[in-house]
Amino acid sequence: MTYVAVKNVSKFYGTHCALKAVSLTVNKGTMVAILGANGAGKSTLISLLCTLTTPTSGQISLAGDDLTTATTRVRAKIGVVFQQSVLDERLSVYENLQIRNRLYQGDEVAVERSMTALNIGGIANRCVGALSGGQRRRADIARALLPQPEVLFLDEPTTGLDAQTRRQLWSIIKAKQRCEQLTIVLTTHYLEEAEQANYIYIIDQGQIVREGTPSGLKQHYTQTRMLIYKGNLQRIITIERAAGRPCEWENQHLLIVLTSVAQCVALLQRYQTDISRFEVKEGSLEDVYLRRLDDG
């Protein structure tokens, strides 16, 4: 079921076009990643989806409500984690969450529920300004989850965090999604984070330039490569080239470009006595992204 729908949306700041004719959909309970370089238009799109600004043209709806005419209803359904923390550094984590909860008119157990979900009970009485980057991010996410939103917008939530902290945060977020069928819209430039999404949109210069599932994008835009390190390499390359199949030398090893892993299995069966050591490298999301940059 479509939960978020963006239809032919453009956004201008003066004469600068930040988004141009963008269309996308997000199904309920799924995670969608919007991938792109800095300045590509990701944060502008999130600002529109969060009702912080309005489109110059086009239409955005969330759960059937138009964002420009039903703003109050829409805001009651969303939680947002911005790139920069919005917590008051002079107050404790608990005080920040209590104040936000009153603004959201949440129930009395909302603060404890959010702190438990993000495992931040141990830092509840610490001043936000004294927290590490990872601790502050957990507090930010706890704040966003206070009203029990139906959709969570994450605008580059792990930028600047170390790999271990990123993994811990994502473990918590994904567990929350599974338990509550939470819909997540993520903007990121970390490719490994985008890999976790159900669907990916790649944005460049304000336009959607690629879209698909992680596996679908890799299948369509990348190649599977087989590197043969040891064996009767000369015999293999002679036969493969004679058959018109792409095959070349790479640093004294044999590189064969394949269309699928199944083709790799067939090749191993064909040369089972000629290959003694090999490696198969499937295309990655990074390959998809870099190919787009190379294509311009």
Structural description of this entry:
This protein is an alpha/beta fold and 296 residues long. The chain folds into two domains: 2-213, P-loop containing nucleotide triphosphate hydrolases (Rossmann fold); 219-295, Alpha-Beta Plaits. It is 36% helix and 30% strand. It contains eleven helices and 14 strands. It has helices at residues 42-49, 71-75, 93-104, 110-117, 133-145, 163-180, 191-194, 214-221, 233-242, 261-270, 285-295; strands spanning 2-13, 16-27, 31-35, 57-62, 65-66, 78-81, 151-155, 183-188, 199-204, 207-212, 224-231, 247-250, 253-258, 275-281. The strands form three sheets. It has a six-stranded mixed β-sheet, sandwiched between helices. The chain has a four-stranded antiparallel β-sheet with strand order 2-1-4-5. A hairpin with a 2-residue loop joins strand 12 and strand 13 (253-258). Helix 4 (110-117) crosses helix 5 (133-145) and helix 8 crosses helix 11. The chain is elongated. Belongs to the ABC transporter superfamily. GO terms for molecular function: ATP binding; ATP hydrolysis activity. Residues 4-230 form the ABC transporter domain.
